[in-house]
Design a protein that fits this description.
The structure holds two protein chains of two kinds. Chain A is mainly alpha-helical. Chain A has two domains: about 1-75, no CATH class; about 95-305, MetI-like (MetI-like fold), CATH 1.10.3720.10. Chain A has helices at about 1-30, 35-40, 50-60, 65-75, 90-125, 130-145, 150-160, 180-205, 205-215, 220-255, 260-270, 275-305. In chain A, helix 6 (about 130-145) packs across helix 8 (about 180-205), helix 7 (about 150-160) crosses helix 10 and helix 9 (about 205-215) packs across helix 10 (about 220-255). Chain A is flat and about 85 Å long. Chain B is an all-alpha fold. Chain B has one domain (about 5-25, about 55-270): MetI-like (MetI-like fold), CATH 1.10.3720.10. Helices cover about 70% and strands about 0% of the residues of chain B. Chain B has helices spanning about 5-20, 20-25, 45, 65-100, 100-115, 120-130, 135-160, 165-170, 175-215, 225-230, 240-270. Chain B is elongated and about 80 Å long. The chains are: A mainly alpha, B mainly alpha. The interface of A and B includes residues 17, 142 and 289 of A.
Chain lengths: ~300, ~280
């Protein structure tokens, strides 16, 4: 147990420089804006005095090193500044208000992906080379090549407009989650299907499968009790790593379905040149991604006893 | 190469030809607007006809011509991004793998991880959001997220190849670092990079379309597939064809580059057959 904690602590320590770099990059973003970011946000009609006043309030008139120190202090104290467009809005509050909707969407996308990929991947893997396997491969390839911004509107047209089964957009009840979740999860389910398939094929060649069959287990028991247990370990890793990707992919899905999450907040902030808000959103998504990856790493070590703790 | 790979090559060739010869092939000017009488675009008016086989968009522009011109942006961005990120990635990966030690610890232990710490599309969105949307910034942003893949591959290959006897022999004969890297190691490490470049084209085309869809790519009136898809959403009820055709173009291109990537992988290294 103590060694496990040591390993985890070491892993955490390795993440710190990455977190430092991410915060620094996000801090620098506002300084790569061509021209004056405050003037850009206020528009042509703002007076020089207004620009200077807002700059002062945001601390953008300080030397860069001082701004950097202030930014770090803010991040550590949970203060990501105020909106440029509407200075009474605190960035972190806005983000936290939107965060649950994005997590909900990403989790739902993950559930969709798992529900599609495991049965499909197992079926393909146990029927290697047969017709059903080829069909699954084609479906998976189509899934990988169909971007959300094609699949999403296509499903809106079919299920919301033509068949009138599901709502077009918004977030007012469980039925509103279905189309966005499928849109977000489709690409991932394609990737996972391929993984589950090759994992199943690999495990089926192992000795323990022959043992299980020899002692008279049904094929179903062999697959679901033995093969899947081992075969899913690498899949769990990918699921964890992809959860962070889903958080970023949610940006496009949220725009398509007017889903009131972090992604829409990001895009709205970009369109109104609300730079501190954009910085906050990017930082939040990137940190969530790092945390998701870290947790995957831990889960992986705990799940698979074969991975030796050095 | 396998059959799907060949099919992919054919599709890619068609799109490249369409991109190069767009002014000759496109039946109309992609920006010219057909004059409508009345103010609302109706289903009747926009749907595909003999004169406009893929129909008109909401502003009365020919969709076929816009899809053809859209190939220009996709291919241009794709080629530029793959070239820039491959060159940067190969140099950094080679240096990291060849010198080892603290250089390697800095590059592969830190720098690569920082860029992998962002979901790639997020970093691209962030950069374009702050630099301002334009095709140049789009290429820049996608190259910044693209190079890491090449760098890691190159590093791995260099680590493997530099232990071979012919490298030791070259060193013993007095070859310098640059000569060993470029004359001896690079040609032996290039195969997986070619596969990566093909898959990278698929990724770049997809990312370009994503960013243009979000309004962060090419600016109107220049036609791009992503932007056409975004415009199409407002007219789903009356003109679903506005979604179908640019959508098919993106899908076919991405699919084709993936086919070629997979095909090349098998062709270049038959041992490593990818299990589809």
């Amino acid at each position: 147990m103590r060694t496990i904690i040591l390993v985890l602590a070491k892993r955490l320590l390795l993440v710190l420089p990455v977190v430092w770099a991410v915060v620094t990059l996000v801090f620098l973003l506002i300084h790569i804006v061509p021209g004056d970011p405050v003037r850009n946000a206020l528009g042509e009609n703002a007076t020089e005095a207004q620009v200077l006043e807002l700059k002062h309030r945001l601390g953008l008139d300080l030397p860069l090193s001082q701004q950097y120190i202030n930014y770090w202090r803010g991040v550590l104290e949970g203060d990501l500044g105020v909106s440029l467009v509407n200075p009474s809005d605190r960035v972190l509050e806005k983000i936290l208000a939107r965060y649950p909707a994005t997590i909900e969407l990403a989790l739902a996308g993950l559930v969709v992906a798992i529900m599609i990929s495991i049965p499909l991947g197992v079926t393909a893997g146990t029927n290697q080379g047969k017709l059903i396997d080829n069909i699954a491969s084609v479906v998976a390839l189509l899934g990988i090549s169909t971007p959300g911004f094609v699949l999403g509107p296509l499903m809106v047209y079919l299920f919301a407009i033509k068949l009138d089964l599901l709502p077009v957009s918004g977030r007012y009840g469980p039925e509103y989650l279905i189309l966005p979740a499928v849109t977000l999860g489709a690409a991932l389910s394609a990737i996972l299907t391929r993984m589950v398939r090759s994992s199943v094929i690999e495990e089926l060649n192992e000795d323990y499968v022959r043992t299980a069959r020899a002692k008279g287990l049904s094929e179903r028991q062999v697959i679901y009790k033995h093969v899947l247990k081992n075969g899913l370990i690498p899949v769990v890793t990918v699921i964890g790593l992809q959860f962070g990707v889903l958080l970023a992919g949610a940006i496009i899905t949220e725009v398509i379905f007017s889903w009131p999450g972090l992604g829409r907040l990001t895009i709205d902030a970009i369109n109104s040149r609300d730079y501190p808000m954009v910085q906050g959103c990017i930082l939040m998504i990137a940190l969530s991604y790092i945390i998701a990856n870290l947790m995957t790493d831990f889960a992986y070590r705990l799940l698979d006893p074969r991975i030796k703790v050095e | 190469m396998n059959r799907l790979g060949k099919l992919g090559l054919v599709i890619i060739t068609i799109f490249f030809l369409a991109a190069i010869f767009a002014p000759q092939i496109a039946p109309y000017d992609p920006i010219r607007q057909e004059q409508f009488t009345g103010d609302h675009p109706t289903e009747e008016r926009l749907k595909p006809t003999r004169g406009h086989p893929l129909g008109l968009d909401d502003l009365g522009r020919d969709v076929l011509s816009r899809v053809i011109y859209g190939a220009r942006i996709s291919m241009q961005v794709g080629v530029m991004v793959v070239m820039i990120s491959a060159i940067i990635g190969m140099i950094l990966g080679a240096v990291s793998g060849y010198y080892g030690g603290w250089v390697d610890r800095f590059f592969s232990g830190f720098l690569f991880n920082v860029f992998l710490a962002f979901p790639s599309i997020l970093l691209a969105i962030a950069m374009v959001a702050f630099l301002g949307p334009s095709i140049r910034n789009l290429i820049l942003a996608l190259s910044v997220i693209g190079w890491v893949g090449y760098a890691r591959l190159m590093r791995g290959q260099v680590l493997k190849v530099r232990e071979y006897d012919f490298v030791t022999a070259a060193r013993a004969l007095g070859a310098g670092h640059a000569r060993i890297l470029f004359r001896h190691i690079l040609p032996n490490a290039i195969q997986p990079l070619i596969v990566q470049a093909s898959l990278g084209m698929a990724g770049a085309v997809l990312s370009e379309a994503s960013l243009s869809f979000l309004g962060l790519g090419v600016q109107p009136p220049t036609p791009s597939w992503g932007m056409m898809l975004n415009d199409a959403r407002s007219y789903l009820r009356v003109a679903p064809h506005l979604l179908i055709f640019p959508g098919l173009a993106v899908m076919l291109t991405v699919l084709a580059f993936n086919f070629v990537g997979d095909g090349l992988r098998e062709w270049l290294d038959p041992k490593q057959k990818r299990q589809l």
